[in-house]
Amino acid sequence: MQRNAKTVGCDGMESIMTTTTLASTKATALMSVLFVAMLGASTVFLTGFGHSQALHDAAHDVRHSSGFPCH
């Protein structure tokens, strides 16, 4: 068996595994960024079209359920 000078290890598969791992890491990072972007866009969209009294009541209820005194 002839060994390639650029690969390290006994089976020569390290460069293939490293490339797959980098591609998987990039895909995971991209999916995370897309998820956060969609979450932020939906939050802005929903609060932009919500009624102010309903948003106030929701924030007030969250404060009470979290244990923060508000009045």
Could you outline the blueprint of secondary structure elements for this entry?
Elements: H1 14-49, H2 52-66
Mean residue pLDDT = 78
Overall radius of gyration: 25 Å
Name the helix and strand elements from N-terminus to C-terminus, one letter apiece.
HH
How many E-type strands? 0
Number of domains: 1
Strand content: under 5%
Q: Mind describing the biggest β-sheet? A: none
Q: Which stretches are poorly predicted, pLDDT < 50 over at least 5 residues?
A: none
**SS-based class:** mainly alpha
**Amino- and carboxy-terminal Cα gap:** 79 Å
Helix content: over 70%
Number of helices: 2
Shape: elongated
Describe this structure in words.
It is a single chain. With 71 residues, this protein is an all-alpha fold. It has one domain (14-66). 72% of the residues lie in helices and 0% in strands. It contains 2 helices and no strands. It has helices spanning 14-49, 52-66. The protein is elongated, with a radius of gyration of 25 Å. The termini are far apart. The mean pLDDT is 78.
